[in-house]
Specification:
The complex is a heterodimer of chains A (380) and B (135). In chain A, 67% of the residues lie in helices and 0% in strands. With 380 residues, chain A is mostly helical. The relative contact order of chain A is 0.06. Helix content of chain B is 24%, strand content 29%. Chain B has a four-stranded antiparallel sheet with strand order 2-5-1-6, covered by helices on one side. In chain B, strands 3-4 form a two-stranded antiparallel sheet. In chain B, a hairpin with an 8-residue loop joins strand 3 and strand 4. Classes of the chains: A mainly alpha (380), B alpha+beta (135).
């Protein structure tokens, strides 16, 4: 069975059903059942028109679902309405589906789960495995999310910023289970870009590609985290970097900057440097200035302090972290950045103490181990 | 989404437990208390936040590597002086630490004598994740 084809067709088939007037929640269940049937029956031979096949099966499932629903309500079982004929699909169905799945009324976790199922065509079990929760829990999360968005009209544009944030969450969540969620996030962002030329979509795709290109260099043979300046740049995927730069350049030419384009520009500068020492830090700093001005995000301000430390020296970098305690609280990354700047300034004792504290505060084992090794190295 | 372990302790909370030991409750009060524990699991499954719930036997042993070619060293436990003894846990997958605190407060509301909440202290601990949180 061509898994990828099935998952490409899933949102298209769902779009057809919803556009013909079916309720979103039932239509989504019907598509999911049609996908399962395709898995079962396509192993012998693929139908000539897989999309038409899926639409037909999903419609049959939908009628079955409505029948049993009707029976449950003690209504006459024959009186089931076929979905009304009407416009079957539009070029931007995937976009509209994503607006629905990333409705602002949903929590991030619910939006992520619903997007992966309704747009990504993943099964509930695959999503549950990816997030290390029981299948029953994930099934409930998805069905609650569907109830929340059911009844929303399938025509109005939603909040693109929420959609992009959900896709970026999926990109950064890809570690558990058999499904590569980072690759899935890239695939979904590509789908979105086919239907809208909003430069921030391109910015997000570029950002993902430019980070994804480094995935084989991010861990060593033992699975330990390798920081950017120590990565073997020969293992970076040049084709992905080239594509990321191409997508980003086209987006920037539109002259409507946003946070993803800016972060992608920073990633591109890192990817472009043959060695860590060749990094164009003044350019990186200039982009961080833009990012902080645009978003007022304290994590961006923290990253800017690192860049400033490279350009103007660690003392300036440290000064730029003043006051961030109030917004970031006990965030481990604030300690880690200050530790790094103290280390560069030659204050090994302070650096070691801050690395130790950062290691205690992070909830990532990979980061904890890395920070612990940094602290240990400063004592030897 | 972050996971939190909500730990029930037999003892070791910020203050000594103020409720009478369960063996002094009526059987119906005990039943109501146990049913509440299962109800919490149902509520969490419905809300899409349940990962696991377990009770631990107070029995157990302490085990240590015995050295090359030696059997593991096993000592009966728990020791009387053990300050903390874990009774069980709920593992939840939630949107925020604040939500984990709400769930712990729900667990703490379990009925005791006379059906009144026992106000049990629960320990809430973030679960470490394998993945780094982005670069």
């Amino acid at each position: 069975v061509n898994e990828l084809l099935l998952r490409e067709l899933a949102p298209q088939v769902l779009g057809v059903l919803v556009r013909r007037g079916s309720d979103f929640a039932s239509a989504e269940d019907a598509v999911q059942e049609a996908l399962i049937e395709a898995h079962r029956t396509w192993s012998g031979a693929m139908p000539d028109e897989p999309k038409a096949w899926l639409v037909a099966v999903a419609r049959r499932k939908l009628v079955d679902l409505q029948r049993s629903e009707a029976a449950r309500r003690r209504r006459e079982s024959g009186a089931v309405e076929e979905p009304a004929p009407g416009p079957t699909e539009r070029a931007d169905d995937t976009l509209l589906l994503m607006f629905l799945c990333c409705h602002p009324a949903l929590t991030p976790a619910s939006a992520v789960a619903l997007t992966l199922r309704a747009v990504g065509g993943l099964t509930t079990r695959e999503i549950a495995e990816a997030f290390l929760v029981p299948e029953a829990t994930m099934a409930q999360r998805i069905s609650r999310a569907k109830r929340t968005v059911s009844g929303q009209p399938f025509t109005t544009p939603g909040d693109l910023a929420v959609v992009l944030r959900v896709l970026y969450l999926i990109f950064n969540a890809g570690y558990g289970g058999r499904v590569d969620l980072a690759a899935e996030a890239i695939r979904l962002t590509r789908l979105l870009l086919l239907e809208s030329d909003e430069p921030e979509i391109a910015g997000l795709l570029a950002l993902m590609l430019l980070h994804h290109a480094r995935r084989f260099a991010r861990q060593d043979a033992h699975g330990s985290l390798v920081p950017l300046d120590e990565q073997d740049r020969g293992r970076w995927q040049r084709a992905e970097i080239a594509e990321g730069v191409r997508v980003l350049t086209a987006a920037l030419a539109r002259d409507r900057r946003g946070e993803y384009q800016i972060q992608a520009a920073i990633a591109a500068l890192h990817d472009d440097a043959p060695t860590a020492a060749d990094t164009d830090w003044p350019q990186v700093l200039a982009w961080y200035d833009d990012l902080v001005a645009l978003t007022d995000n304290p994590m961006a301000a923290l990253s800017r302090a690192v860049a400033l430390g490279e350009v103007a020296g660690p003392a300036e970098g440290l000064r730029a972290t003043d006051g961030l305690d109030e917004v970031l609280g006990e965030h481990h990354r604030l300690d880690a950045v200050r530790a790094h700047l103290h280390e560069r300034a030659g204050d090994r004792a302070e650096a070691a103490a801050l690395y130790r504290r950062a290691a205690r505060r992070t909830t990532s084992t990979a980061e904890r181990d890395h920070l612990t090794r940094k602290a240990a190295a400063l004592r030897s | 989404m972050p996971k939190y372990l909500i730990l029930k302790h037999y003892n070791g909370g910020p203050e000594p437990a103020s409720f009478a030991p369960m063996d002094q409750w009526t059987p119906d009060e005990v039943t109501a208390h146990m049913e509440f524990q299962r109800e919490v699991s149902r509520i969490l499954t419905d809300s899409g936040e349940f990962v696991d719930a377990r009770a631990l036997s107070p029995q157990g042993s302490w085990v240590q590597y015995g050295g090359p070619d030696a059997a593991p060293v096993v000592t009966d436990g728990p020791f009387p002086e053990t300050k903390e003894l874990i009774a069980g846990w709920y593992l939840v997958d939630v949107d925020s630490e604040a939500r984990a605190h709400e769930v712990a407060a729900l667990v703490s509301r379990a009925p005791g004598q006379g059906g009144e909440p026992i106000y049990e202290w629960l320990e809430v601990r973030p679960v470490m994740e394998d993945a780094p949180a982005g670069e």
